[in-house]
């Protein structure tokens, strides 16, 4: 474990997080606060993509409805704020409670199916929630609702982009470390085995569906926390957050960065949103260029950006080469690992 933290992949992740930690100071020094809000948004979507990767990359559950949990997290701030409640702890409890319950109910139903049926059912649940919130005309309906009272955790108020930036960075670092650790834990090993062959997991006395449901619920709750941060950053919540297109964007981020890798969703969110911003600066028809570029990047390597980085490291001269191939979350456990699980 100690050697793993000294690997080039871990050092690269530490360097990226260190750069993100000093970025606000640089943005304030050059009087460009826009970059604080922009990178805060990137980290929030990286949290949501990492949450999806728990279900998708580790559990093999291709969910097309994770925008549901992102939206529930956003409205966990917006609805109490509408009634004049700005207690952040209440917002957080409401966020975790609603997103967790929604993930438990929808996951229990969806996991009775598999493949394309699972994808369509998760999509259907998200669209159902979308139309429910569109119909709430008292809370803005399709136009959304402004948040006048942001989440306050004692002296910490998430009404400032800088505060949201710090909270997002802290949560992203903790989530990344937790996913890296869970990959080596028995829970992660069972999920990886169930992704390859759920019947074998059942045959050794472990209920694969129960483990997958637990992963789905954890994924939904983490995605809800991303929604809470996003609502505070924008001071606004809209049913559009629950649209199927948002779920598609999260999947693209995971695939682009490297499905099943720890840092893949972070790199995918950075590349996706960063490329979008760059193309917008050059042309108003940026979407014409954006699609082919995303497709080309996805086709360059089966493990996305993480795979490209590993392949580049493998082509280096042998005297300066280190083993940096990041194990895929979905890889089959070794025989020794199975003994640990049992």
Describe this entry's structure for a reader.
With 342 residues, the protein is mainly α. The protein has a single domain, classed as Orthogonal Bundle (ABC transporter involved in vitamin B12 uptake, BtuC). The protein has 15 helices and four strands. It has helices at 2-5, 8-29, 34-58, 67-82, 88-110, 116-134, 161-182, 186-196, 198-203, 208-234, 244-257, 264-282, 286-299, 304-314, 335-341, and strands at residues 145-146, 152-153, 156-157, 236-237. The strands form two sheets. A two-stranded antiparallel ribbon has the order 1-4. It has a two-stranded antiparallel sheet with strand order 2-3. The longest helix has 27 residues, at 208-234.
Please render the helix and strand layout as text.
Layout (H helix, E strand, L loop, with lengths): L1 H4 L2 H22 L4 H25 L8 H16 L5 H23 L5 H19 L10 E2 L5 E2 L2 E2 L3 H22 L3 H11 L1 H6 L4 H27 L1 E2 L6 H14 L6 H19 L3 H14 L4 H11 L20 H7 L1
Antiparallel strand pairs: 1-4, 2-3
Helix pairs in contact: 2-3, 2-7, 3-7, 3-10, 3-11, 3-12, 4-5, 4-6, 4-10, 5-6, 5-10, 7-10, 8-10, 8-15, 11-12, 12-13
Short description:
The protein has 342 residues and is an all-alpha fold.
Placed side by side, the strands forming the largest sheet appear as: 1-4
Give the count of structural domains. Answer: 1
CATH topology: ABC transporter involved in vitamin B12 uptake, BtuC
Low-confidence stretches: 1-5, 323-342
CATH architecture annotation name: Orthogonal Bundle
Rg for CA atoms = 20 Å
The percentage helix is: over 70%
How many strands in all? 4
What's the mean pLDDT score? 86
Shape: globular
Count of discrete alpha- or pi-helical segments spanning 4 or more residues: 15
User: Class, according to the CATH hierarchy?
Assistant: Mainly Alpha
Order of helices and strands: HHHHHHEEEHHHHEHHHHH
Proportion of strand residues: under 5%
Main sheet summary: 2 strands, antiparallel
